[in-house]
Amino acid sequence: MFVTLRDRTDQIIDLLRDPIYFFGVDPEILELTDVSKDDFYEAARCYSVGFSVASMMFMLRATEEVLRTYYSKVTHQQAQRRNWGALLEVLRIPVLNCPSELINLLRKLQIRRNAAMHPSTRRQNEWDMSTAKDILDACHQTFQLMVDDLKARSGAAYIQ
What we know:
Layout (H helix, E strand, L loop, with lengths): L8 H9 L1 H4 L11 H15 L3 H24 L8 H8 L8 H18 L11 H31 L1
Helix pairs in contact: 1-3, 3-4, 4-5, 4-6, 4-7, 5-6, 6-7
């Protein structure tokens, strides 16, 4: 049983029931680690009760884990122990042909992640529930772009 803030009750039901599905991560395409699964659930719980900063932190951490999976699938290299910046730097290499929309969105999320890691530099008004919603939406869009790209890549492999 969950208690949610009244103004979020309708939008949060699906998120709490199955946050992985809600965020658009297709586990058949992007296998999730146990850490990322836990982070998705924690992000959903924190968001539902109004803990905006905690929800953003968990969501960004889950996104970084999903980014590692995407990186591994695109580069055919292990991504363990690589941070967001290192992963993004490689994915930006033109020969990998990652969608520019995805790279730009990942860059914007990286900036938010870096700000979250340094609480002394963030302004409180930038870490409210509307910002949390924006980050959750951006992460959702990011996952959709990753899944679409990986589906296109697998389709192209069958053509060759």
